[in-house]
Amino acid sequence: MPVNYATPSPEALFPVAGVKLGVAEANIRKAGRKDLTLIEIAPNAAVAGVFTQNSFCAAPVKVCIDHLSRNPDGIRALVINTGNANAGTGEEGLQAALKSCAAAGELLGAPLDAVLPFSTGVVQEPLPIDRLIAGLPTALANLSEDNWFAAAHAIMTTDTVAKAASKKVITAGKTMTVTGISKGAGMIRPNMATMLGFIATDAAISPPLLASLVKEAADQSFNCITVDGDTSTNDSFVIIASGKGALSFVSEEESGWAEAKAAIFAVALELAQAIVRDGEGATKFITVAVEGGVSQEECRKVAYAVAHSPLVKTAFFASDPNLGRILVAIGYAGVDDLAVEGVKVWLEAAGESALVYDRGCRAALYREEDGCRLMREAEITARIHLGRGNAAAKVYTCDLSHDYVSINANYRS
User: What's the rounded Cα separation, in Å, for the pair 347 and 98?
Assistant: First the structure.
């Protein structure tokens, strides 16, 4: 079960003018489940994305990057399938991704390079493209602006719950709507993870500004999460600006941009944190907050080292305050000339805080029973002060349980 997360109700997910979603059962991997999503985008919308850093990036990722580079303000549709990643599939996989674009484009009266394909699921298995194409007319038939709830469910793989978020913001006297969905539970690591994230807004945002925004939004959200340290072949995060609302932005200097950007960032962070809360086998949601660094990059390096450590994560699962494991991770994070006597570490949960490490050793007032009590909570923060500067960063992770092994050992069965 996810940690303190439930899928929002359909009514809580606001339609975004100019963006329609439809789902279908295409039997990509398993029968009897929605596994195909078609998203139609109004003409003249802007679309931007960021993608996996894995060298074995999947065929649909390659196609997305190519189509976006050629057509940033001419994308008319997204095609998303689960059950098969279409990764490690060579030329056959690339042709399958292109065929999905051609089929969706034909249905919508759009050219092949106006469609972006996305796949998630098992790696190195051929995509059953004929089944995907056969399912597209059904997805087309139920296209609707209020279909975000169904789409959130249709993009799931090992997720136990669908992930979605929505906000309305009023700025400069005008209303802007932001709604998004994501999927992911395992193979999650910064530099994008085995996750798909899609956010749409009805604001008009110029392609150059949107391209900058999607990178910044990813760095503030999806690139601040880790479940197991594995970076997938299919990670994709896309923002759609339909331009059908009342707000329009060409540059960052325009009135209302700060509020608009904050709303998009908030939806992205909620979607990213939902992935961690639903991490495979997770029982606890953990924030690793590092402050007092020379730079944000240094703080992130330390936060990732702690958040990736299986020893730290299993200690949190057991509610075992074996907190020397945190010090070990800080020590190998690669911070040059770290003065360990200047480092401080706190555990924080349920409104309480306990200083654990101070001046080179266990804090004088720390008691192990305090650590046990705080680590039993479902939401915990490990706060680390490096004593070197004023920079800070946060990374969100979860514990590592027996169920994680069971889920991934049985993934293909």
Answer: 50
Pairing relation of β-strands 248-249 and 204-205? parallel
Cα→Cα distances 3→177, 280, 380, Å: 27, 11, 11
Task: Label residue 26 exposed, middle or buried (CB < 10 Å: 0-12, 13-18, 19+).
Answer: buried
DSSP 8-state symbol, 144:
B
Instruction: Please name the amino acid found at residue 183.
Output: K
Cβ atoms of 379 and 4 closer than 8 Å: yes
Based on the residue annotation, tell me whether 194 is a catalytic residue of this protein.
Answer: yes
CA 144, distance to chain mean position in Å, is 24
Please list the pLDDT of the chain residue by residue as tens digits (413 residues). Answer: 799 999 999 999 999 999 999 999 999 998 889 999 999 999 999 999 999 888 888 999 999 999 999 988 899 999 999 999 999 999 999 999 999 999 999 999 999 999 999 999 888 899 999 999 999 999 999 999 999 999 999 999 889 999 999 999 999 899 999 999 999 865 445 444 458 999 999 999 999 999 999 999 999 999 898 875 556 678 899 999 999 999 999 999 999 999 999 999 999 999 999 999 997 778 999 999 999 999 999 999 999 999 999 999 999 999 999 999 999 999 999 998 999 999 999 999 999 999 999 999 999 999 999 999 999 999 999 999 999 999 999 999 999 888 766 766 665 55
Q: Which of 276, 265, 278, 223 is nearest to 52 (CA)?
A: 223
Distance CA 149, CA 162 (A): 8
CA-closest candidate to residue 356, choices 374, 339, 338: 374
Which tokens go with 342?
A: 């200047």
* Cα–Cα distance for residue pair 185/411, rounded to 1 Å: 12
Strands 236-241 and 196-201: parallel
Helix and strand numbers (H, E) in the chain are 11, 17
CA-closest candidate to residue 303, choices 209, 366, 394: 394
Q: Among residues 7, 52, 120, 194, which one is catalytic?
A: 194
- The pair phi, psi for residue 85, each rounded to 5°, is -80, -15
**Interacting residues of 38 by C-beta distance below 8 A, sequence separation 6+:** 21, 22, 23, 24, 77, 78, 79, 80, 104, 136, 139, 140, 143
The answer to whether the predicted template modeling score (pTM) of the entire model surpasses 0.70 is yes
H-type alpha helices, 207-256? 207-220
